[in-house]
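Dear H.,

Thanks for agreeing to be a second pair of eyes. The structure we're designing against is below in token form, covering all 482 positions.
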């Protein structure tokens, strides 16, 4: 047998780093639940509510040390509210942030009933986190899979995401998790029961083969192509599609399914000074149990030469628990530091907005800029801002709100929030009978000083959920099919 030696380099990710990466994505409302789970699993770890009793640190009598100093916030939510009570203007009022918690909790609950392996379950959590307020998947599967692979430090095939997405699309409300309107309506149609097979088959054919004509309301042309124009079967099929819900994330009153939203951060303004803090309503600390420390010290004093195998196993068992507890304590501590530093960096860049609460004062901002300021990787910033929000004097905003694209305005780069505001104003003031096409809006914006391409106008129109000119000027004719 030919034996060869080969030298190679490999990168080993520490357990503490893996813990930190996973904890960064957890919202502040859910972090204590994860801490409690870890305490239940590790007998060496304990939660201390009395911070005065949490000052003792433990240093293992060997080469490594364990940090257990307090990482809890210095001022809790109630103290913050008390300090600001002198200002009669202060009110905690929730802004127009979509509170996706209720919808996503419902989806996560349904995910728990599926018979999925660990990988597919984690993928399900990732996909549900990418479902927007309207119920659609907001990013393509390739991008979601790429982020997931980076977070897990292993390549995950897109086919796994397609499989799990198909499961999620079977959840309630019908149409949830669709990637576009055509897929959304098709999912809902397939779930409908107690309907004539012929009607359902024609409706499915319309969505599959004539969706563009249906979207532009060219019903007569569809009927002609199918050879069933003006028939009751055709009218019932069209009417069936028209009754489907194009925005499954919204309830029957067209309001987002919400419940009280608990922001992760609070940014307050006192005398033009901006204060940033985590919105935690419980003060506590983590430490390694004193009993474990004493037992470990006792075992370490035993002469290893005379120690029995049972004693050696006990030493290894206790040391492993202490190591794991120390890693977790440091991961939680590092999580809080990273979150605070990131939020402070965002406030630093968007200072004019936080001082004035005027969206037009937002400046173009990319995650790369925050990553350079905080001195972490861009992927870390992506995890920090995921599913997190901040309370300001005027309302609650998702952290993603502060990351905007830049657009050229009279030779200066400004946030695309300004152009969207100008775009909305043009639409509001247009002739409702003869609305502007994207090309017309592009010219008007250029006259106002915004140099944008037609495709950019089309993209912003879609982001603002504004239909094309033809649909804006068209009177809804669905009543003729009732």
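And this is the sequence the design step returned. I haven't edited it by hand at all.
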């Amino acid at each position: 047998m030919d034996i060869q030696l080969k030298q190679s380099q490999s990168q080993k990710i520490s357990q503490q780093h893996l813990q930190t990466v996973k904890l960064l994505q957890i919202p502040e409302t859910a972090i204590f639940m994860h801490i409690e789970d870890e305490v239940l699993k590790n007998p060496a770890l304990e939660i201390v509510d009395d911070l005065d009793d949490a000052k003792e640190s433990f240093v293992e009598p060997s080469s490594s040390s364990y940090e257990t100093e307090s990482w809890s916030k210095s001022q809790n939510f109630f103290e913050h509210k008390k300090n600001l009570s002198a200002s009669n203007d202060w009110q905690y009022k929730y802004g127009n942030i979509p509170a996706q918690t209720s919808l996503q909790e419902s989806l996560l609950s349904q995910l728990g009933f599926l018979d999925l392996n660990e990988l597919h379950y984690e993928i399900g959590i990732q996909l549900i986190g990418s479902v927007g307020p309207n119920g659609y998947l907001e990013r393509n599967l390739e991008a979601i899979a790429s982020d997931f692979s980076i977070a897990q430090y292993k390549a995950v095939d897109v086919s796994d995401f397609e499989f799990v997405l198909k499961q999620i699309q079977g959840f309630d409300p019908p149409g949830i998790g669709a990637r576009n309107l055509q897929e959304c309506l098709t999912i809902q149609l397939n779930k409908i029961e107690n309907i004539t097979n012929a009607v359902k088959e024609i409706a499915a054919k319309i969505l599959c083969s004539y969706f563009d004509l249906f979207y532009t309301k060219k019903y007569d042309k569809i009927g002609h192509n199918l050879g069933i124009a003006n028939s009751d079967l055709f009218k019932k099929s069209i009417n069936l599609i028209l009754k489907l819900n194009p925005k499954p994330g919204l309830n029957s009153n067209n309001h987002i399914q919400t419940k009280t939203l608990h922001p992760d951060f609070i940014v307050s303004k006192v005398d033009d000074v901006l204060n940033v803090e985590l919105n935690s309503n419980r003060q506590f600390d983590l430490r390694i149990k004193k009993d474990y420390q004493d037992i470990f010290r006792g075992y370490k004093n035993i002469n290893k030469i005379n120690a029995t195998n049972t004693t050696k196993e006990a030493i290894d068992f206790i040391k492993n628990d202490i190591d794991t507890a120390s890693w977790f304590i440091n991961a939680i501590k590092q999580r809080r530091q990273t979150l605070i530093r990131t939020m402070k960096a965002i406030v630093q860049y968007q200072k004019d907005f936080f001082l004035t609460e005027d969206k037009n004062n937002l400046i173009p901002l990319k995650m790369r800029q925050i990553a350079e300021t905080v001195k972490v990787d861009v992927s870390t910033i992506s995890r920090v801002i995921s599913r997190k929000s901040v309370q300001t004097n005027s309302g609650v905003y998702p952290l993603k709100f502060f990351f905007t694209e830049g657009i050229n305005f009279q030779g200066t780069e400004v946030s695309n929030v300004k152009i969207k505001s100008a775009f909305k104003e043009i639409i509001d003031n247009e002739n409702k009978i003869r609305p502007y096409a994207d090309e017309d809006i592009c010219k008007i914006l250029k006259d106002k000083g915004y140099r944008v391409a037609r495709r950019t106008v089309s993209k912003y129109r879609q982001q603002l959920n504004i239909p094309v000119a033809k649909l804006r000027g068209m009177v809804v004719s669905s009543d003729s099919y009732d």
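Two observations from my side: The first helix runs from residue 15 to 24. The domain at 405-481 is CATH 1.10.10.60 (Arc Repressor Mutant, subunit A).

Warmly,
E.
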